[in-house]
Design a protein that fits this description.
343 residues; single chain; alpha/beta; 13 helices
Length: 343
Amino acid sequence: MVMADIVNAAFPTPLGWQRGHLQSIRSRVLPRQWPLADVSHVQQVQITMHDGSGDRLAAHVHRPRKPMPGHPLVVLVHGLGGSMESDYIRASARGLLRTGFSVVRVDLRGAGRSGDHSAGLYHAGRTEDLRDLLRQVRDQAPGGIAVMGFSLGGNATLKLVGEPLADLPVVAAVAVSAPLDLATGVEHLHHMLFGMYERFVMNGLREDAERPGPAAGFTAAEAAAVRRARTVVEFDDAITAPRNGWRDAAEYYAVNSSGQYLARITVPTLVIHAIDDPMIPAGPYRAIDWEAIESQGWVRRAITPHGGHVGFHERGRAYPWYVPQAIRFFQATAGPQHRPIPA
């Protein structure tokens, strides 16, 4: 399958920022502020995990100053090495709040403020934590709940809505730059730019291992294993897999890769991705039979030639391109009853 077979959206890449690498690092090169106090009222809450660990997640529940009745509450899920303060989370939160959506920003288990209240670690498929979060905020969501995940959080989002939702009032989902095949993704990351992106990720993982307080609750042996690890696979072999009952990293990747869940999704879901994403390879996206998936009526794709990894920065626009795309999708599809996406 060639690129043209799966590309179906156009992101107007600004002159000088066409390359995927530049789009991916733009927020670090030219950081922007995304204030939320002027567009929302915020409540800080802690979400108790019901697995007996005693771990809690830190979350901020934002109410828009100009709410729109019937809009779902949108839960934003950060990626690997991110937190509720990541620029893409704050940008999305501000755009959604200004459009009348309530928003929940959360630090996943072991990340950000949650590191002070949890000894566990999040991973690409830890949807049980998202379920605990959604159950504890559903009373504040009369219009239902939408989930929007980025990168590793996008993988978790697609897996969540591809699993039985039971009593969860999830009405829509959006995934941005999600790795559909984790094994292929980490291999790609290892080789891209001579491992530069992987070294960046590993630096963050090592910082977590040495963080004071509960943080990830590393034993001395685990902390030493993290310091020795030079690749994401080595980290997942040493920490993620054994902590969660998998034989090794390969089994963890096989069980939790989100591509296999696309055909099982039964709520309106939008998958946003750029072919030139330097951190997520295009191969797994090309391997999906999108016509078959989309014919079921629940999943739509917005795959562009350019945009980088959670980039999609437009000159002269208030928000990255994925923010208005998600807003329009939620406005068009979210509702109290599950229904296929209009043709």
